[in-house]
Amino acid sequence: MKILVAGGAGYIGSNMAALLRAEGFEPVVFDNLIKGHRDAVGDAEFVQGDLADSELLVDTLSKYKIEAVMHFAAFIEVGESAAEPIKYYQNNVSNTQNLLGAMEKAAVEKFIFSSTAAVYGMPKEVPIGEEAPTEPINPYGQTKLAIERMCHWQMMAGKLRYATLRYFNAAGAGSNGRLGEDHRPESHLIPLTIKAAMSKRSDIKIFGTDYPTADGTCIRDYIHIEDLCRAHLLALRKLETENELVYNLGNGKGYSVREVIEMVRRLSGKDFDVVESGRRAGDAPVLTSDATKAQKELGWETKYPELEKIVATAWEFHNKYPNGYSD
């Protein structure tokens, strides 16, 4: 099966393309390289292009006889989305509309959408199940929810079979530590802490130490990138018999900010400064997933649920690429 991987030069997309190749699929990576890295694509077929280019999308889908699309091309920074909401609606929503329109013209029905736990906003209960209210509190989450609803109505019109996968915190590195996080700028806790251990940052900050958790810091659900990508393959197979799928993807277990910091210290053998600051607006004390639906319906299970494995693979990547990818 030939699969278009939109955003396949980014962190999750590049790992997905690598897994597809390893499993005998033929991925075609489509990326404008604004956020992605050509070095992360490897030997996969690559088309440099923008999702705003409808004509190129239709041509690519037709030329390569694409049978399914996996969509990872989105802006993901919550703070930036609040400061520049139109930028996020343009890139995330309008460009996805272009992609779905091109798929309709090229008669490609299967679609795997990279969504987010941010669609739940500030949940009243944790762990969070798929039935929880979707009440995003920032433009990033709103754009992802808007796309989910667009997919639903396209499915109701008989023009789409899709799975929306709501990620918690993708982390670690795949392909033996070759494909990891190289966001510019970086905002995720694990790579930021690793950079502090590598003396590429002066310190790591903890925002809030008085939360109602065991050590006073926020708890988040981290899922290894390869576990995340395997769920996409299972969802793709499920679309052979289903038209609409919605799943949470997470470990179901959380780790605190202090636990992450201490794990990086232990695995790296390095010490670094930790600066305690006040809470940030909008940070929930605990955000963890209930992913039993994906486990039961897809037969999905996490192979690397331990924080140690997640951090160890990330550490391996950052030591292989201490300055990030060359491009």
Q: How would you describe this structure to a colleague?
A:
- The protein has 2 domains: 2-171 and 223-249, Rossmann fold (3-Layer(aba) Sandwich); 189-220 and 252-320, UDP-galactose 4-epimerase, domain 1, CATH 3.90.25.10.
- It is of the alpha/beta class.
- A 7-stranded parallel sheet has the order 3-2-1-4-5-6-11, with helices on both faces.
- It has helices spanning 11-22, 54-63, 78-83, 85-105, 139-156, 189-197, 225-238, 257-268, 292-298, 307-320, and strands at 2-6, 26-31, 45-48, 68-71, 110-116, 161-167, 169-171, 203-207, 219-220, 222-224, 244-249, 255-256, 273-277, 286-287.
- Helix content is 38%, strand content 19%.
- 47% of the residues are buried.
- It starts with a strand and ends in a 7-residue tail after the last helix.
- The chain has 10 helices and 14 strands.
- The model has no long low-confidence stretch (mean pLDDT 97).
The neighbouring-strand order within the major sheet is: 3-2-1-4-5-6-11
Average pLDDT rating: 97
- Would you tell me the structural class of the helices and strands? alpha/beta
CATH architecture of the largest domain: 3-Layer(aba) Sandwich
Number of helices: 10
- Fourth-tier CATH superfamily name of the largest domain: NAD(P)-binding Rossmann-like Domain
Write a concise keyword list for the protein shown above.
alpha/beta, Rossmann fold, 2 domains, seven-stranded parallel sheet, about 40% helix, UDP-galactose 4-epimerase, domain 1, globular, three-stranded mixed sheet, about 325 residues, 10 helices
